[in-house]
Amino acid sequence: MSAVFIERDGRLPLAHVTTTRLDGSLLDPVGKEGLTRLTVRLMRRTAGGRSADENNERLDALGGSLLGEVQKTHLSLGGAVLSENLRAYLDAVEETWTRPGLFEDEFDRVKDESLAEWYEALENDRGLAFSTFERHVYGDHPLSRPAGGTRSSLEAITHQDVVRHAEALGREPHLLIAGAGDVSPEVLESFAARLTNSAPLSPPPVSEPEAPPGRRLFFVDKPARSQSQIVLGGAGAHPKDKDQVALHVANTIFGGTFTGRLSREIRIKRGWSYGAYSYLSLDRSRGTFSIWTFPEAKDTLACVSLALEMIESLCHQGITKAELTRAQRYLRRSHVFSSDTAQKRVQLRLEEAVYGLEPGYFESFPDKVREVTVEDVNEALRRRISPENLTIAVVGTHSEIGASLESKIPGLKSSRVLRYDHPD
Amino acid sequence: MTQRNPSALSRLTAELSARAPAHALSFEGTIPFGPELEIARFRLNNGLTILLLVDTSAKVVAYHTWFKVGSRHEHPGKTGLAHLFEHLMFGTMEGFPPGEFDRQMEAAGADNNASTWLDFTQYQEAFPKDQLGKIVKLEATRMHRLVLGQAELDTEKDVVLSERRFRVDDDVDGKVDELLWSTAFQRHTYKIPTIGLEEDIKGFTLDDLMSFYRAYYSPGNAALILVGDFSMRSALSMIQEAYGPIVSSPIPMEETWPEPPQIEERVRTLDLASSADRLAMGYKGPALGDDDHVAMSLLMEALVGGAASRLPKRLVRKESLVSDIRGAVGPHKDPSLIEFSAAAREGVRAETILSAIDEELDRVLAEPLSSDELARARSRTKLALLSGLETADGKASTIGFYETILGKPAAAFERLERLGQLDAGDLLRVGRRYLTRNSRSVVLGHAKEAS
């Protein structure tokens, strides 16, 4: 018995396959963050007891991509393939889960490359701002531990750690399996039957995180920055919250689109930043609410202050009926783009299963949006978003703007300066 | 199959033209787009090219407008004009107050965006199929009824400067890439960065922008691409009514100079506020329309197309010199660059990476690729093409791009067919022709961390 989702569309000779486990980087032991991701990579490279070169060449020859994605609460392995080679591709996926070679020399390489990627990520200011925000938004809660690991946690992982972890992941692969495009249901069902003989396990619960009290600044100091990358926010939505849809509508109004409040004030009126948006992340646990923008260094304090004022105004004054009507119209009409390909349709069904939502949740999303009222949105904002308890991550040059931020951000409770090459 | 009867389309255009003779439409034929679909080509009498592809796989329409103007049409001192203008196309229009364009797009549930590059500027929307009438009117209006104000221009200059800081000034790859192109091209306007130089962006006036608008945003310089679930009759009728009255203007003669042959290697060094070195290099390569472009693209796929290709296999996996290496053949109207770019591992010098790449390129010029390597490169190329055609928007982008650069909207499939005909000898020939050191430019980006 297994959970298999299929959306057929044979118009292009292309197939998509995803296999998903309902656990992820939260499995990583403390101090060995990145273990699950490193393990999935090694499994993929040594599938079927082949060398990494042999597996890479095999996938390229099939016209296939096969990637492992590790989130906090779930992980997936899959990709796309020319449909004429679907059976051979499924063999490769199966061998990844059930017969990885886990060779030590390849482990050394995967670890070395993971460290190099961590190092390379330091060049990406936007990525640094987001990872710093995520690292601190929930304090010491396990959700704050990075799925990709840190330099020290990656260095601490041994081959034995990975072998043991791979055995646990592959021993009873309770998987959700999704196929889309030019796929035959018989082929996919047969693959599922070979790969997994039981229904997906009930996922382990994730404890409710809490945003630490007060406004906290984490300044990532990087030399010679002409602009600042800012990510600020706090606790967000859980997919099973009754007011999750109302909060989604609120985010659309605030910073989900080009005409949202943030873009209007920061980009259109003041020309401070090319982008100003807000996000509600969705996972099997409580996600985050965050704002991203990147003004010139000299405008950083003004921009942070304005963003904070805007969050306060959103939560205290709420939204208007006209804003709600516009957001509802946009969300209901644009919903068609979440299901305009077979791959997107199957992805929604998969997400329902991953998040524990009822089947058809996303299909009926436009109806749910229509039912939301101004009061629902304002109540959700008051309940879920706390303007007083926010994490503010800034990547910039501290000697130029750090002091003014530390002394003038309204209501700042604490501040830390982090070296960009030692952000942990 | 959704193939249509050409004579029925001729009758349709004749009927629509008879209703509005001043805005006559002509049917110019159909073009297969893969085995299942077909593009119908029309032209309005003001010169607007219309390409329609009915695809009922989803209840959506992708609507793209491609203009044959990009940074290749700019001059030193006035760089970034096409890109800045693209930003202003989301501003005020006659009959629409500031911001109304975006509000109406969002009210339609549309996902919209735009981009500018060397040879083109394009605007795109994808929306539910019942919103087509509204989008046609909005797009037609901004093609000829844009209103530019000083305040709007000033703010948008600041926004573009922010974009420049994001993509170039605070981005090591952006900086290196800008220097590579300005080194490789000395005469041709491909040397101009599309986003523009800071001082030039600050200096633009309303007159500059209005002159540009009048010169290049003429229907005769544009192609309209619709892909999705719509009625051909209804779409043509709406387009004729909305775009027919737009008066065409003569397109300025292009004054681009061809790039003189490069006869010696050019090497530049650049200090980067970074913790690791960067390398970028570009060989003078074929234009997109050159038959060699397909062969060279296939060779690049074998060299840098994936983990199993030669350069990542050696530089990433075997010798741990780089964390990432990429490459591509510039898809441009005129001959441009075959580019390689690499991010060094901690402590590795850009010069070391260059030596390793040179050894691999020497090898690829000395002996042909194996049949397995060739087959893998073909499969990867096919996967990439098909992956880009799953949505209406992806199809419209593919059609618009090849129509604008080559005048052949289905050229992607011609290239795919050509891929199957190429052998290792073809790849050896193009490699030897283009990967010559005297035609290349190199940027060595050295990490210089500020204390």
Task: Set out the fold topology.
The complex is a heterodimer of chains A (424) and B (451).
Chain A: E1 3-8, E2 14-21, H1 35-45, H2 52-62, E3 67-70, E4 75-82, H3 86-98, H4 104-121, H5 125-136, H6 151-156, H7 159-171, E5 176-181, H8 185-195, E6 215-221, E7 229-235, H9 244-256, H10 261-269, E8 276-280, E9 288-293, H11 300-317, H12 321-334, H13 342-355, H14 365-371, H15 374-384, E10 391-396, H16 398-408, E11 412-419
Parallel strand pairs in A: 1-5, 6-10, 6-11
Antiparallel strand pairs in A: 2-4, 2-5, 3-4, 7-9, 7-10, 8-9
Helix pairs in contact in A: 1-4, 1-7, 3-8, 9-12, 9-15, 12-14
Chain B: H1 6-19, E1 25-33, E2 37-44, E3 49-54, E4 60-67, H2 81-88, H3 100-107, E5 111-116, E6 121-128, H4 132-144, H5 150-169, H6 172-184, H7 198-203, H8 206-216, E7 222-228, H9 232-243, E8 266-272, E9 278-284, H10 291-304, H11 310-318, E10 322-329, E11 337-344, H12 350-366, H13 371-387, H14 392-406, H15 411-421, H16 424-434, E12 440-447
Parallel strand pairs in B: 3-7, 8-12
Antiparallel strand pairs in B: 1-2, 2-3, 4-6, 4-7, 5-6, 9-11, 9-12, 10-11
